[in-house]
């Protein structure tokens, strides 16, 4: 038999959860077997969480100035980094969702099904993680970040705390404005 492709610990755990759920359904409500063959707590453990990476302001400025990268990519990275949407939310944006006269942005469809509107900070660069890191490092509250990113709990925001502390200790400040 061929070897299975390598799987991450998270994928192995997810598969194990599905198997456990399937076996539990075989017990009840299906009543196909008397008991679940998989004991509670058998799930593989997840490894330690990876540190979140973020782009520093000088790297951001170099990326935005690098003319070998198409302008539309640079503008997209700038928007993602400064406004904090998911890439899928940015990809779904339509002209009517952006009001440049008032500097407002509307995200009607998103992962959490929680429509959001906010004032745009028209500046530029990279990732959602960078947005959160820079915001926290510069004194923005978790509530402020969650309002813009759509996070419903602080768990995901907390994953960038260490990077934000490093960012603040280095005194890197805000990203340069795109305007």
UniProtKB/TrEMBL annotation:
Determine the domain of life of the protein's source: Bacteria
Keyword field contains Transmembrane: no
Protein name, per record: Tyr recombinase domain-containing protein
What SUPFAM superfamilies does the entry give? DNA breaking-rejoining enzymes
**One MF annotation (Gene Ontology) recorded for this entry:** DNA binding
What InterPro entries does UniProt report for this protein, alphabetically?
A: DNA_brk_join_enz, Integrase-like_cat_sf
Keyword Lyase attributed: no
Quick one: a GO biological-process term for this protein? DNA integration
Q: Which UniProt keywords apply?
A: DNA recombination
């Amino acid at each position: 038999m061929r070897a299975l492709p390598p799987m991450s610990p998270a994928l192995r755990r997810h598969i194990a959860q599905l198997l456990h759920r399937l076996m539990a359904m075989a017990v009840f409500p299906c009543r196909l077997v008397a008991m679940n063959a998989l004991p509670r707590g058998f799930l593989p453990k997840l490894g330690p969480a990876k540190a979140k990476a973020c782009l520093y302001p000088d790297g951001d400025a170099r990326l935005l100035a690098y003319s070998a990268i198409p302008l539309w990519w640079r503008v997209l990275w700038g928007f993602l980094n400064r406004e904090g949407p998911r890439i899928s939310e940015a990809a779904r944006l339509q002209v009517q969702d952006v009001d440049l006269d008032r500097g407002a942005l509307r995200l009607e469809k998103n992962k959490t099904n929680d429509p959001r509107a906010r004032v745009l900070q028209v500046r530029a660069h990279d990732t959602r993680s960078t947005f959160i890191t820079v915001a926290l490092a510069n004194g923005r509250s978790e509530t402020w970040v969650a309002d813009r990113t759509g996070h419903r709990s602080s768990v995901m925001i907390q994953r960038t705390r260490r990077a934000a502390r490093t960012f603040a200790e280095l005194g890197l400040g805000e990203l340069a404005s795109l305007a």
